[in-house]
Amino acid sequence: MKPTRILAAAGLCLAALCANPGWAQDVRPSVTAASPDGSLVLSVTTDNDARPTWSLSRKGKLLIAPSKLGFLLTDGLNMVRGFSIAGSEKAAADDTWEQPWGERRFVSDHYNEVVVRFQQSQVQGARRMNVRFRLFDNGIGFRYELPEQPALKTMRIAEETTEFDIVPEGKAWWIPGGEWNRYEQVYRETPIDAVSTAHTPITMRLEDGTHLSFHEAALVDYAGYWFKRASGQLFRTELAPGSDSAKVVRDLPFATPWRTVRIANDAAGLVENDLELNLNEPNKLGDVSWFKPARYIGIWWGMIRGDWTWAEGPRHGATTKRAKQYIDYAAQHGFRGVLVEGWNMGWNGDWFGHGDAFSFTQPTPDFDLKGLTAYAAKKGVHLIGHHETGGNIANYEPQLDDAMALYGKLGVDVVKTGYVADAGGIIAPGDKPGETKMVWHDGQRMVNHYLDVVKDAARHHIAVNTHEPVKDTGLRRTYPNWVSREGARGMEYNAWNAFANGPDHEPTLVYTRMLSGPMDYTPGVLSLEGAQHTPLASTLAKQLGLYLALYSPIQMAADFVENLKAHPREMEFIEHVPTDWAESHLIAGEVGDYAIFARKDRNGPEWFVGGVNDATARTVTLNFDFLDEGKTYEAKIWKDGEGATYLTEARHRIAYDTRMVRKGDKIDIWLAPGGGAAMRLIPQD
Ligand code: NOJ
Ligand code: CA
Fold first, then answer.
1. Catalytic annotation on 492?
2. Where on the tree of life does the source sit, at the highest rank (predicted)?
3. pLDDT > 90: what percent of the chain?
4. For residue 337, which of 197, 323, 384, 668 is within the disulfide window of CB 3.0 to 4.6 Å?
């Protein structure tokens, strides 16, 4: 279907006159627009101090009260006051586009759009600023567009002052922005008016059941924003810092990232929502069939637990011998990838937040990179590369292209990158040769760095899995080789402390972090043990359910191969679960409590169902409405065994079942405390 664009002059309405016909003295013009089904209605105007504002109602009720728009600059009058509406244009589109890989093959992109043109008075600086709003039935996005203009050549942004004044009360699920551990924090559940400064996406459930998620789309050459509460339920953008007082520096013309709000009736509407993807530009890389969604294993969990080391020495993890063992296992069990960390020079000594010794091209003497890639290739396996920078991009950037070229030549077509450093602790090249400066993982400099790495990798047909990333804002649509990232507490935390992530973590991630995009969570620790036997807050069935709950086109089975081998029945599920889907539906779930998905294989007729639970045992009725009419499926089921609980050794109790299901059938499934479930549905005819 081709997009249909209807251009029309937006009708200007006198703001207060429309709402209150009695107030004839108030002549501020406003612009209104509605989503395609009319449920969301936007109003854009200026307030008594000539400050641009936007507001939004849903189904006739005010959702976002008038909220200001604008910028503070480091070198000029602010762009907050003295604005009037100079005009507006409307457009609409109803399109469907295809993803090269993803949670669903086809994405519907249906919206009404309005661009509102603001002009500032002479005395306030005479700047022009346009705001483009797109209204979908399940959300809204808007961004600032700064056109070329005589009064402003370069914008040095001290702060963006976009506001979101949420009207109904409710609860929020969030992690703090600006904290030392970046996005790697346990989620909090608080009233909306108890949020401080949050990372996005931040999720809310309002008293009337409406679900919201505030985030951004197409974060390019700009700083990421934190969602900062100003008072009550009024929030404001706070940009991640730069290395001086300007958080963003851009030459005009340019557009900011989109500020987005997903708006849904229920949890499923929040999750099955492609707002940010739709607001990103289409694929710029062309044919990306060289990226193959796939499962992988790795020489990794041993280092994370401390049994092996990244550094050279007697416990070095990345040895030729061990890599061969992992390649052999991968070949036998259908894993395309084997991640090897610590294969390169520079890990000896203190690399955290430092990383100046890393070489990205020189293997350690006990690791035969060339021989191993050839050995793997013969078996249809690919090594997954690793670039840990220690947060030192001044050391990494000059080596980047050589490093990618080396991997490209050797058939290493996925690379995991890493930026282990505290927030604000990235070492970037300075303004003069030999100098460095400190920047933030989510500041403008790093936003540009991450994308430069992705673009360079694409030139060598390599996909990127970023750890310690900036948050995902849907850029996989434009650069489909940016396939996964961390950006939350992953499995690794379970190696370090008992119940480190807690049973609520994954059923919260589904509705928060996962709304931004794929996560390299690294499930599949079938031993349910971290270092020194520290237990995971998980039953065995939950380890399988994670493959359906937390989407990524590259999915690890993280445990040692010895532990995978010890669980042949669980491996039967892992060896079959796809990493690329034609469709994905949340068929049961509530934010922070539980999440069960039904997903259809993109390359075959099978469906997979499963997910994760929090600490509260529950029986969930699954409705098989999503199946094809008239077909019978054999459902192979992995579920929590009787009495299973994450709290005791009973976490290992798993039960297996097989039954026939057809469209419309219902199955009750019991989820243990910290439990989960997984099913494989095989059509019978
Ligand atoms: C932190 C990453 O999340 C982890 O996966 C990796 O192994 C270490 N950094 C070392 O790079
Ligand atoms: Ca990490």
1. yes
2. Bacteria
3. 96
4. 384
Q: Is the CB of 520 under 6 A from ligand 1?
A: no
Peptide bond into 201 cis (omega under 30): yes
What residues does 581 pair with on adjacent strands? Answer: 601
For residue 391, how far is its CA from the centre of ligand 2 (angstroms)?
Answer: 12
Beta-carbon contacts of residue 395 (< 8 Å; ≥ 6 apart): 355, 356, 358, 389, 427
Q: Which atom of ligand 1 is nearest to the CA of 300?
A: 7
388 Cβ inside 6 Å of ligand 1: yes
Residue 484 CA to ligand 2 center (angstroms) comes to: 13
Closest Cα to atom 10 of ligand 1:
388
Is the pLDDT at 1 greater than 60? The verdict is: no
206 Cα–ligand 1 center, Å:
37
Enter the DSSP assignment of 534. P
| pLDDT over threshold 50, residue 313 | yes
Q: Write down the pTM of the prediction.
A: 0.96
> Going from the N-terminus, what domains does the chain have, and what CATH number goes with each?
8-278 (2.70.98.10), 294-576 (3.20.20.70)
Q: Amino acid identity, residue 199?
A: H
Atom of ligand 1 nearest to the CA of 304: 7
Q: Is 311 in the pocket of ligand 1 (CB under 6 A)?
A: no
Whether 201 contacts 512, CB under 8 Å: yes
Tokens for 604? 């075959």
The alpha carbon dihedral of 59, 61, 66, 69 has a sign of: negative
In which residue are the tokens 């914008």 written? Answer: 155
- pLDDT (0 to 100) of residue 26: 55
Distance 467 CA to ligand 1 centre (A): 7
Count of H-run helices and E-run strands, the chain: 13, 40
Query: To test ligand 1's pocket by mutation, which of 183, 307, 341 has the most ligand atoms within 8 angstroms of CB?
Result: 341
Q: Is 492 in the pocket of ligand 1 (CB under 6 A)?
A: yes
Nearest CA to ligand 1 atom 6: 418
For residues 512 and 33, give the distance between their C-alpha atoms in angstroms, rounded to a whole number.
Answer: 28
Cβ partners under 8 Å of residue 647, min gap 6:
673, 674
Determine phi and psi for 135, rounding to 5 degrees. Answer: -110, 115
To 10 degrees, what angle do helices 444-459 and 400-410 make? 30
Is 420 a pocket residue for ligand 1 (Cβ < 6 Å)? yes
What are the pLDDT digits (tens) for 160-206?
Answer: 999 999 999 999 999 999 999 999 999 999 999 999 999 999 999 99
Q: What is the pLDDT of residues 191-203, one digit of tens each?
A: 999 999 999 999 9
Catalytic residue, chosen from 238, 492, 506, 570, is 492
Helix, strand, coil percentages in the chain from 3-state DSSP, rounded to 5:
20, 40, 45
Ligand at shortest distance from the CA of 520: 1
Residue listed under structure tokens 């039967």: 572
pLDDT tens string 249-285? 999 999 999 999 999 999 999 999 999 999 999 999 9
Centroid of ligand 2 to alpha carbon of 9 (angstroms): 49
Alpha-carbon span 646 to 395, nearest angstrom: 43
